[in-house]
Amino acid sequence: MAEATYFRKGFGLKTAIEGQLATDYHSRLVETIRSRDYRLPVGPLTFRLAREFGFCYGVDRAVDYAYETRMKFPDRSLYLVGEIIHNPHVNAKLEAMGVVFLHRVPGGEFDFSRLTADDVVIMPAFGVTIHDFERLRSIGCVLVDTTCGSVLNVWKRVESYARDGFTVLIHGKQWHEETKATASQVMKYPGGRYLVVLDMAEARAVCDWIEQGGDPGPVTARFAAAGSPGFDFVRDLTRVGLANQTTMLSSESLAIAEEVRRTMIRKYGEAAAAEHVRTFDTICSATQERQDAVERLLADPPDLMIVVGGYNSSNTTHLAKLSASRGVRTYHIEDSDCLDLATGAIRHRPVGHKSETTETGWLGGAGSIGITAGASTPNNKIGETIERVCAMAGLQAELDKALGNGQ
Predict the structure, then answer these.
(1) pTM of the predicted model, to two decimals?
(2) What is the mean pLDDT of residues 219-231?
(3) Which positions are catalytic?
(4) Which of 83, 98, 215, 259 has the highest CB neighbour number within 10 Å of its CB?
């Protein structure tokens, strides 16, 4: 019997890897705070943990499958397309296990030149494009597919739009692997078209074109890298179906969908609008839950908010954006190493910026500290962050006392 070469449901090794996963990612401190109604007073500080944070089901599943794959194929070369998730700690753990990361050639495709039929390749939680999947299948290597179920649901939605002749308008980041993979699903169908908009400003530019027309040159130039091959603003925006990268800011995705719907009503009339626009909220439930949890925490604003997670994690950056938009002093850090115990400084990336900055005196005057983390951040990085803040504030003894003998 020929060897199976495609796996989506793991290898039944969950029990065997549980101990290693607990060692690598769990935090007793975080579990203690959770058990105490998500609050932990430590001397003059009170830490308040959002009620939904950290690893979601899809990330848990992807990481589990990666660990199971290493155990299932201990003597095979093991590769990963891109990153399993956008978290540097998790990716470093996989590298230490011998997983080799495959990267895109600048401006081009993933480099699969080293792969052979004897190798094992993990596809990430974001999924891969149809083109990359076909390339991998042609090589004949074993494929372990960790694509998140929420992403697959988006793919089904955009396929239905394309099948019915609607151009897919995706609220997302055109350079993000998930959006690339989603857009590729549209191209299964003859005449399939897509356009990616980053935010409301770009969506309004598209809506203005739909409603007013005119010279397509400026808008075509603006979105030159965001559309399907040969995208034609005159031809391809009469019927539009809305979708989104699952990790975008939900409120903005919904607002964009409503903006497009109203545009089509003004253009074609209320009765005919359904023939020209379809909308569906494709934000994943875990992303929504984490955003909602931050909203609830901010109803009684803390003095400052710490958001823990990769700078290239879309859902994490949107949590930081949401917090900052409510006027709360917000620090987005990749992990606890961003807190320098020697100087008391915090190294963070301000909302809306593309590089880090270092700030001293940031903790002064704070009494309550909100904590949350993106869906790709493991609990141990949250716990380590809280421990470092306490150490910076000279509250190690108080933390030990607050935790009692169980820690």
Answers:
(1) 0.90
(2) 96
(3) 178
(4) 83
